[in-house]
Design brief:
Largest sheet: 8 strands, parallel, barrel
Radius of gyration: 20 Å
Structural class: alpha/beta
Helix content: 40-55%
Number of helices: 13
Shape: globular
Length: about 375
């Protein structure tokens, strides 16, 4: 048992999940905010880089942190110091909102899973855009160090922004809500994600229907381009609970619109096949389930999408990635990039380094095997 696993089992697991997240994230930001703090965290935690060219930029490595961890763009470079090649902030809504009543975040340790019904709690697009703008200015001030973070020892993570609909916005104004957010954050984003798949905002998943999704994606893309003065890569995040036919329909639409990519998949409302007791599952209640139980469905969705998308369309695979073997499986199956969230909670701050080191070892072993086979 690692030191982190001991702390998680005997300390963190006794603390409310949302509070534990807030404490740990605040501590990481505090450490990296000290002189030399970022470099220290990188020396301890950062794994080898493995650059990936995608979405018109170069990612330091293919391992990203999924939306939901840094909702308000408060710790992008602190999380990058742990080794993540990109951080997807949000979900961001046009209006600030507190989210659903607490408690709203629960662990299911027997399944290495999390249930959340956060409800898009965030400071709003204007506040997030302000933080992203200040980060961009800091990077510009240190342009000589192209990674843009004082004291850092490697490239900064790329930044995606995940956009959702404000809870108070009626269905017939949903497009305007997304467009408002896109205009504010697009100038600072390496890519945008239209989130229509969270189960925690009433009516949101109905926007995954092709007839609703087409005008939404078109409007957001046009608004982002106009605000940023450049094309901003646009992806859509889909649910694992869609039928195969619905997933194929979205792939066809993505091809038709020349969408830059798809993030697959969000959390699930299913509770099938869990090891946790019925009492623990019932105590967690409603919401989206993430973590190891999503693995099989996320792999299946990835394979289905890859068969129906152009080779140039990016797929960011997320859901149940716990190890380098999981990550490599997704990359081999056609994912361009991968994301995790729940595995970081259970694996701790050294988890990204372990994954990246093993990915690097696997790549080196494959290359050596290839040379021997010639």
């Amino acid at each position: 048992m690692s030191a982190y696993e001991w702390v998680f089992r005997h300390v963190l697991q006794r603390v409310d999940a949302e509070r534990a997240h807030r404490i740990s994230f605040t501590a990481l930001r505090a450490i990296t905010g000290l002189p030399g703090g970022t470099a220290l965290v990188q020396r301890l935690c950062r794994g080898p880089d493995r650059p990936v060219a995608a979405l018109g930029v170069t990612f330091p490595n293919p391992l990203g942190l999924a939306a939901g961890f840094d909702k308000d763009a408060k710790g992008i470079d602190a999380l990058g110091a742990l080794g993540f090649g990109f951080v997807e902030v949000g979900t961001v809504t046009a209006r600030p909102q507190p989210g659903n009543p607490r408690p709203r975040l629960f662990r299911l340790p027997d399944d290495r899973a999390i249930v959340n019904r956060m409800g898009f709690n965030n400071d709003g697009a204007e506040a997030v855009a302000g933080r992203l703008g200040r980060r961009s200015q800091r990077r510009a001030d240190h342009r000589g160090r192209w990674w843009g973070v004082r004291g850092s020892q490697g490239p900064s993570p790329r930044v995606g922004v995940n956009l959702g609909r404000s809870k108070a916005t009626p269905d017939d104004a949903a497009i305007d809500d997304y467009v408002s957010s896109a205009r504010l954050v697009a100038p600072y984003a390496d890519y945008l994600v239209v989130n229509v798949s969270s189960p925690n905002t009433p009516g949101l998943r109905e926007l995954q229907a092709v007839e609703s999704l087409r005008p939404l994606l078109t409007a957001v893309r046009d608004a982002a381009r106009g605000a940023a003065g450049r094309p901003v890569p646009l992806l859509v995040k889909i649910a694992p609970d869609l039928s195969d036919d619905e997933i194929v329909a979205i792939a066809v639409l993505a091809t038709e619109l020349r969408l830059d990519g798809i993030v697959a998949t969000n959390t699930t409302v299913s509770r099938d096949g869990l090891r946790s007791s019925q009492q623990d599952v019932a105590a967690a209640g409603a919401g989206g389930l993430s973590g190891a139980p999503l693995r099989d469905r996320s792999v299946a969705v990835l394979a289905l999408l890859r068969r129906h998308l152009d080779d140039g369309t990016v797929i960011i695979s997320v859901g149940g990635i716990e190890s380098a073997a999981d990550a490599q499986e997704r990359l081999d199956a056609g994912a361009t990039l991968v994301q995790a969230y729940t595995a970081l909670v259970y694996g701790g701050p050294f988890w990204p380094r372990r994954v990246l080191r093993e990915l690097n070892r696997r790549t080196s072993s494959s290359a050596q095997a290839g040379r021997r086979g010639r």
